[in-house]
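Input structure tokens:
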């Protein structure tokens, strides 16, 4: 995990963005904003390149149509509707561990770090968006500590993130990222899968 301040901030922003993708429904304004993004700003790793390709291919299409396609694909890939063989992104469905053990471990970890889901989020603690939000919050905390010169405390946060990822997120989210990449009908959700895979490698 990154320790350079700029890299920590970038990683926190990436995890927060991905968390929003999985926890929030897509909106027309969001699609319009994405399609208006200069492709040059999206260049980077495989996920960014895939997103740039999606923007270039859909820039001149009706935003409402693009939104509908993204929403239908989301329902299949995130909510498990339709005929796709993609399990929804909940750790308990992927990790091969007792559900009570998984949920108990997650809830203890969140409580110890003072992390709470936003009031408008009703998904369970093991949904990928919630786990990504936790990592984003910890990286934001690490960033603040680094800026304040509190390096020992920042190191402790790094250890918390590393332990959480090894015990939870990284044990299963890679499988889900691969499912997105292989089964998405839209370039948007394929790009999300690639961005997720990239985030997991940080």
């Amino acid at each position: 995990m990154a320790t350079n301040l700029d890299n920590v901030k970038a990683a926190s922003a990436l995890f927060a963005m991905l968390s929003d993708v999985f926890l929030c429904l897509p909106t027309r304004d969001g699609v319009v904003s994405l399609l208006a993004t200069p492709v040059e700003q999206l260049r980077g790793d495989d996920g960014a390149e895939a997103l740039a390709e999606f923007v270039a291919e859909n820039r001149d299409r009706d935003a409402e149509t693009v939104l509908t396609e993204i929403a239908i694909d989301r329902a299949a890939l995130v909510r498990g509707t339709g005929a796709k063989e993609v399990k929804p992104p909940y750790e308990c469905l992927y990790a091969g561990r007792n559900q009570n053990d998984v949920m108990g471990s997650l809830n203890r970890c969140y409580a110890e770090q003072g992390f709470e889901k936003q009031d408008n989020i009703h998904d369970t603690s093991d949904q990928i968006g919630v786990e990504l939000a936790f990592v984003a919050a910890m990286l934001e905390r690490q960033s603040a500590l680094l800026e304040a010169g509190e390096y020992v405390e920042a190191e402790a946060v790094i250890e918390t993130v590393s332990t959480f990822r090894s015990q939870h997120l990284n044990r299963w989210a890679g499988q889900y990222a691969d499912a997105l990449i292989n089964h998405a009908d839209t370039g948007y959700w394929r790009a999300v899968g690639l961005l997720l895979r990239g985030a997991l490698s940080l």
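The chain has nine helices and no strands. The chain has a mean pLDDT of 93.
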